[in-house]
UniProtKB/TrEMBL annotation:
This is Uncharacterized protein. GO terms for cellular component: cytoplasm; extracellular space. Signal peptide: none annotated. The keyword Glycoprotein applies. Residues 16-54, 63-98 form the EGF-like domain. One of its GO terms (biological process) is epithelial cell differentiation. SMART domains: EGF, EGF_CA, VWC.
Length: 277
């Protein structure tokens, strides 16, 4: 907060007198003198603020208690101690008091970055006693970039891959879908694994044609994930009892096939059969 002093008699064309530099003004030690054209003021120093009386000599500047206001940055087990114009963090006890991080039989200093031995592509940091690890960012403009960690930076022709159809060329690190597999080009070699489908919380599911993952359906006749329960039987039109999982053809309709699915009769017509009969 500023404590403004009224301007002295300074006329246009007369050089400004710097009262602060000349030692003409003495501000309280909690404030400092700031010269302005035609006048000066006593400004509270960092760590102090005015108590509301705004005395001209700055004697109304009082200490800010960072510890009491919880505006300090002391970490973990260290204790905040208020000081005139600031604060200090005192380490009393505890392994995290210093903010350092014990790692791999050595101590990493607070604020230190390093590459861990368990992952050449990771970058770890110590911050206030806590260790944070993340994927190291890639810089493809760096000629010494690790291509194992950054395959997308690998432009060598020998590292490219043809897909299974032989029509598309992928650079190292690129991914694509083939059938129901996820594939990736890794330095000239294609690696594929089954596509991971999301978990479904429904009773009946089916996999549609040309799709890889199941979807929910409400009709049990459309479901292909049924576990047949022989205790749930069906009665066909002729009155015969059919066990769950049994199939039969409708009387007088040889192209219509039916199946018992846990108490539900599900029928379908074979179109090829109809054309041939």
């Amino acid at each position: 907060m500023s404590h403004l002093q009224q301007p002295h008699a300074k006329h246009t064309g007369i050089k400004d007198i710097d009262e602060c530099a000349e030692g003409l003004i003495e501000c309280h030690n909690h404030s400092r003198c700031v010269n302005l054209p035609g006048w000066y003021h006593c400004e509270c120093r960092s760590g102090f603020h005015d108590n509301g009386s705004y005395l001209l000599d700055g004697s109304s500047c009082i200490d800010i208690d960072e510890c009491g206001l919880q505006t300090h940055t002391c970490w973990n087990d260290s204790v905040c101690v208020n000081l005139p114009g600031g604060y200090d963090c005192v380490c009393t006890s505890g392994p995290g008091c210093s903010g350092d991080c014990p790692q791999e039989e050595q101590i990493r200093r607070n604020g230190e970055d390093w590459k861990p031995g368990f992952d050449r592509c990771a970058l770890c940091s110590c911050k206030d006693g806590q260790t944070y690890c993340r994927r190291r960012p890639c810089d493809c403009g760096d000629p010494d970039e690790d291509l194992f960690c950054c395959p997308g930076c690998d432009n060598r022709p020998s590292s490219q891959c043809l897909d299974q159809s032989g029509r598309t060329l992928y650079r190292s690190g690129a991914s694509w879908l083939y059938g129901c597999q996820q594939c990736r080009c890794m330095e000239g070699e294609v690696d594929c694994w089954p596509l991971v489908c999301p978990a479904l919380m429904c009773e009946y599911t089916t996999v549609a044609e040309a799709e890889c993952c199941p979807r929910c359906v409400t009709d049990p006749c459309l479901a292909d994930n049924l576990s047949y329960d022989i205790r749930q039987t069906c009665q066909d039109p002729a009155g015969a009892v059919r066990l769950s999982g049994d199939t039969w053809h409708m009387l007088n309709s040889p192209c219509t096939a039916c199946k018992c699915k846990n108490g539900n009769i599900c029928c379908s017509v074979d179109l090829d059969c109809l054309q041939n009969n």
